[in-house]
Amino acid sequence: MPASVDVTSVRLPLAADAVVVGGGTIGAWTAWFLRRAGLSRVVLVEADTLGKGASGRAAGMVRAQGGTPVAVRLGMFSRDFYAQQYEALGIDSGFVAQGYYVPCFGAEEVAQARERIAMQRGLGLEVRWVDSGDFDASNPAMAPAQTQGASYAPGDGYVDPPRNVLAYTVALITSGVTIAERTRFAGLRMAGDRVVAVRTEAGEIATDRVVLTGGPTLGAIGAVVGCAIPSGGARHQVVVTQPHPDVAADRLPMVFDVASGIYWRPEEGGVLWGMSNPEETPGEAVQFDAAYHALMAARVAQLLPVTATLGLRRTWAATIDYTPDHLPILGPVITADGPLQGSVIAAAGGHGMMWGPGVARVAADLSLEGHSDLVDTTDLGLDRFDEHGRSRLAPDPIALPFPDLATA
Q1: Do 227 and 237 lie in a common domain?
Q2: What is the largest CA-CA distance in the chain?
Q3: SS3 label, residue 347
Q4: What is the tens place of the pLDDT at every residue in 151-169?
Q5: Which residues have C-beta within 8 Å of that of residue 58, sequence separation ≥ 6?
Q6: pLDDT tens, position by position, 321-376
Q7: Is residue 118 domain-resident?
Q8: 198/342 same-domain check
Q9: Is residue 67 part of a domain?
Q10: Are 344 and 329 in contact (CB under 8 A)?
Q11: Residue 273 and residue 286: Cα distance in Å, rounded?
Q12: Which range marks the domain in which residue 355 is found?
């Protein structure tokens, strides 16, 4: 496919084969997948600049150890996509297969983990149970005898978020996607129940395919077209400690303490760890909450004692998206008049970096074919939520603790 470059966002094309709204991880890779599938004219519309939101401020965790089959399939696809990027693009997102433990601290967690491992292995994931002694031996920085064992996937790892933004920017430009930055989405033009154009503040693009993404702003994007999307935003905080030999990368596998909602990985010779506060009111928040950090730092020091002696090199907060059941939204826009033909909503449910490529691939599949061979999207659309935003699906149990969006 010949490459063409348009990053001015001033002169929009009059028509396109598909328009993608949102220039984060999901939107960008969706546009790339659509172009790669053979569509000649793909336009990406972004209100700010590529990666300006959570994609450039994420922690980069990439885990296939999901708590549901959908989560596992999306995680495996995304992990493999990151690992194989260089061969396809000549650039990559800096994926490192660090190995990831999900420890158990009680008998009930152990039973749940063993059942989860059986499900994950049935889907082809390389994952195993590790007893407490072997866990301690593989995690020398941790205080010993804290756990009753853990699940472990050696292929799980992490990417470098700014490098991911660079990778998808290069992929978009070299594949010929038209990038319309600083171009705000303003609605859809319909013919009956079918999309015939995307409206922006810079003009209209005739098209019969549109994919709406946007992370924590997706609810507002849906409101523009009269669609209630239960995808909220919440503050997520990340810190990086000073370097120390005890937390060198070869001594620090990735760990997710699900009960407290804390995870960590190596970074710059220190520990990168992140947290979200489920007691906060949902909404945009990018200021660092020092009080909540101090509360969670005590838990981290209990598990990783050396962190109590380490200062912080970097701290930041970002607004990230989530859904009430911690699962993706993949399906058509639904208004009071019913589904809009030619439309797709794509939300990662708080796992934008982890599931981004997988969600993007499925969104592209839905836009092109109406179905995907990666996951069955029958139950992943907006129709799983009631008028209060409550989902009929059981939530993914391996997820960060977010506020209750249904009652917010």
Answers
A1: no
A2: 64
A3: strand
A4: 999 999 999 999 999 999 9
A5: 161, 318, 320, 352, 353
A6: 999 999 999 999 999 999 999 999 999 988 999 999 999 999 999 999 999 999 99
A7: yes
A8: yes
A9: no
A10: no
A11: 17
A12: 18-56+162-231+325-407
